[in-house]
């Protein structure tokens, strides 16, 4: 069985108000060393019955069609044995 670990993040050119709120909250409770926070998504997908090469193709399709908005987000993934 394979697993796909998918990471979706906002593009650097897109403002991240949620990340800014987290940064400000952490600074307000004494963590002044924090300079920036970016919030993203982590998605784990279990796959069975396909090869690693097929999994890479399929997961790329999942990301492009549903998991990531390519106008605003970047994605990367890794396929690992489960």
Task: Describe the model.
- There is one protein chain.
- The chain has helices spanning 17-28, 52-67, and strands spanning 2-10, 40-47, 73-81.
- The chain has 82 residues and is of the alpha+beta class.
- The protein is elongated and about 50 Å long.
- The mean pLDDT is 98.
Topology summary:
Blueprint: E1 2-10, H1 17-28, E2 40-47, H2 52-67, E3 73-81
Instruction: Report the span from N to C terminus.
Output: 5 Å
- Give me the oligomer status: single chain
Strand order in the sheet with the most strands: 2-1-3
Fraction of residues in β-strands: 25-35%
Helix and strand pattern? EHEHE
CATH class group: Alpha Beta
Shape: elongated
CATH architectural grouping? 2-Layer Sandwich
CATH H-tier superfamily: Phosphoribosylformylglycinamidine synthase subunit PurS
Computed Rg: 16 Å
Count of separate structural domains: 1
In the CATH hierarchy, the third-tier topology is known as Mth169, Chain: A
List the total number of helices. 2
Low-confidence stretches: none
Task: Tell me about the largest β-sheet.
Answer: 3 strands, antiparallel
What is the structure about, briefly put?
The chain has 82 residues and is of the alpha+beta class. Helices cover 34% and strands 32% of the residues. It is built from two helices and three strands; from the N terminus they run βαβαβ.
Tag the structure with descriptive keywords.
alpha+beta; 34% helix; 82 residues; 2 helices
């Amino acid at each position: 069985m394979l697993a796909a670990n998918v990471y979706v993040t906002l593009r650097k050119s897109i403002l991240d108000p949620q990340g800014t709120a987290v940064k400000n909250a952490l600074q307000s409770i004494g963590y002044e060393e924090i300079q920036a926070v970016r919030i993203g998504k982590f998605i784990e997908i279990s796959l069975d019955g396909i090869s690693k090469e097929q999994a890479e193709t399929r997961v790329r399709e999942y990301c492009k069609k549903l998991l990531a908005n390519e106008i605003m987000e970047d994605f990367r993934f890794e396929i690992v044995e489960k």
